[in-house]
User: Fold DUF3489 domain-containing protein from Methylobacterium bullatum.
Amino acid sequence: MIDETHHTLLKTAAESPDQLIARPAGLNVRAAKALFAKLSKTALAIEVVVTGDERHWHQDQRGSIGLRLTTAGRESLGFGLDVGSSVSSMPVADAGPDRAGTKPRSGTKRALIIAMLQRDDGATVGDLMAATGWLAHSTRATLTGLRKRGMILTKGCDAEGRTAYRLTDDATTEAR
Assistant:
């Protein structure tokens, strides 16, 4: 997953006031793009629009784009609360409710699964398979992906005794 080099980048960001992960010097464009993608897919970093004087990885139509260490990233390194909360850069425009800062596009199958899991009674794998047309292994992989993005899934039983999954806001919430 995260090797020693990545750990060093994250630790350096945790110790800086802006919590931004610096792009390593001398990294070619292709390698930088791959590293950016790897770090932004974890729950440890979030893609943000930064101001012109802040560290960034690339630029696009939104402006300068950087990577900021998340609270989960700080905690994984053994640091306390996020000290960089007062910095001026904001998460990218499509950032949403999950802890990784990504929100699925409306109308996608992942958005449908999230909506089904947010219902009071949750959803079974069978319900999710029927709604998406996916096989069981793809459906379960999506549930795993949601967990990796920082969403909290609880597992319980529905009225018929089948295993049902629900998205919760708090890890202390018990499954129904």
In short: The radius of gyration is 18 Å. Strands lie at 20-21, 45-50, 58-60, 63-69, 90-91, 123-124, 152-157, 163-168. Residues 48 and 90 are 6 Å apart (CA to CA).
